[in-house]
Amino acid sequence: MFKKILLFLKNSKIWRSLKVRLFIIMFLTGMLPAVLMRAGILENYENRAVDVRVSDVQTQLRIIANHLITYNYLQDTSSEVIGAELEQLSNLYNGRVLIINGNLKVVKDTYGISEGKTIISEEVIRCMKGSGTVNYDAVNRFIEITVPIVENVTLPQPAEDGSKSRDMVRGVMLTSVSTDSIVNTMDILSRKAMIMESIMVIGIFAFALMLVQVMVRPFERVTKAINEMKEGYRDEPISVPDYLETEHIVEAFNSLLERMKALDDSRQEFVANVSHELKTPITSVKVLADSLLAQPDAPAELYREFMEDIATEIEREDKIINDLLALVKQDKSVAEMNISVVDLNALTEIILKRLRPIARKKNIEITMISKRQVKAEVDEVKMSLILTNLVENAIKYNREQGKVEVSLDADHQFFTVQVKDTGIGIPEEYINQIYERFYRVDKSHSKEIGGTGLGLAITRSAVLLHRGSIKAESVEGKGTTFTVKIPLSRTLVPV
């Protein structure tokens, strides 16, 4: 049954509540000192009361012990004065007094039941040697005290140390003193302390409950604000600066909200751009087709010219669709990466050889600077895509008789590809937007230059799949430099 209760409490969601945990911590923090203080005070009182009782009884016993020697009570127990003193001591402390002579024989028992008997015990033997003892039995509620009966004897001749007298133990006073009065006082104190504890429990319970409600209230406001935002009642940033923790949570949530809004805006803009880019070639094809249909007797040369234009628009549509598919495919998962060890020097040479004919049409010179032999664990197809897109852009947006410089370098962790051109450059205010899908800096010449506006988006996605980085630096009218930095090995990629 107990295990079931523990299992239920363990699985219960209530224990995962911050409010419950704070309440328990505060309640225990308030109660434990009170409980420990109560136990400490009672224990301290008991020890103190026992010490005072022992000191009082020992003082009385020493006085009576001196009287025993004075009245020679160990040999003659008929002294009424000593008897009265022993009875008074016994009644005062609700105890029992035994007078034991040097032969360990009881000469007087205030209870009258052990007179004439011989007592052999460790305490009595030790006391015969001059060491009194005190034993407190908390269970049976009594204190046992032994006090030696000492007589000062004059020596026939001085001792070696020059003393003329010596204390001789003639007997022992064995006394048992009741501690019922101490225990009764402790019971009264304990009951009063229990009443005080009960009042404190109620007070601490109420205080902890109230304090927890106040402390958790900012978190509840954060939850309420998030729920209102989820339901659509508000869309402005949340502000709950009560605690540093709530401020951090709110800042993180507001950053996430801004990111989501940016993604939503980007998605809407992307859909609009896709619709526009896909619709433009179709509109052109429809216009050309309608023009041909409107001219049933059009010459063959006109048909051929229109069909070439239609084929060009269809090719453009096909390129947009293929780029979109490539971009969507790269957005999926790193698991689709086909990693192998690739000679990047050789791969770069092949790509530049393929693109040089395009560059010659604009009299653009392409050079490659290989600072060292570089081999890396990459996806060869995606790496080819990165290099091709960057070099193609450097050719497209270059001026006549311009230059394109491709540099390849590496250190012990990363390799770097740098593509530098002498083209038209990118204005500084647009440098962070060039990776957006369908974004073009110079929209007026986009049709003349060609492309879909997806090249850099595809390139950046491929770089990120390799856990790398891409950076653009540009001076308008002088040229642009793209720098790609990718880990040489997949083991260097942070998880």
Structural commentary:
This protein has 495 residues and is α+β, with helices and mostly antiparallel strands. It has a 5-stranded antiparallel β-sheet with strand order 2-1-5-4-3, with helices on both faces. It has a 5-stranded mixed β-sheet with strand order 7-9-10-12-11, covered by helices on one side. Strands 6-8 form a two-stranded antiparallel sheet. The chain is built from 11 helices and 12 strands. It folds into 3 domains: 1-153 and 165-225, Beta-Lactamase (2-Layer Sandwich), CATH 3.30.450.20; 237-332, Helix Hairpins, CATH 1.10.287; 334-492, Heat Shock Protein 90, CATH 3.30.565.10. Strand 1 and strand 2 (106-109) form a beta hairpin. The radius of gyration is 52 Å and the shape is rod-shaped.
CATH class of the largest domain: Alpha Beta
Count of DSSP strands: 12
The structure class reads alpha+beta
CATH superfamily membership of the largest domain, which one?
Answer: PAS domain
Which spans have pLDDT < 50 for at least 5 consecutive residues? 443-451
Biggest beta sheet summary: 5 strands, antiparallel
**Helix content bin:** 40-55%
Strand content: 15-25%
On the 0-100 scale, what is the average pLDDT? 80
Order of neighbouring strands in the sheet with most strands? 2-1-5-4-3
Number of helices: 11
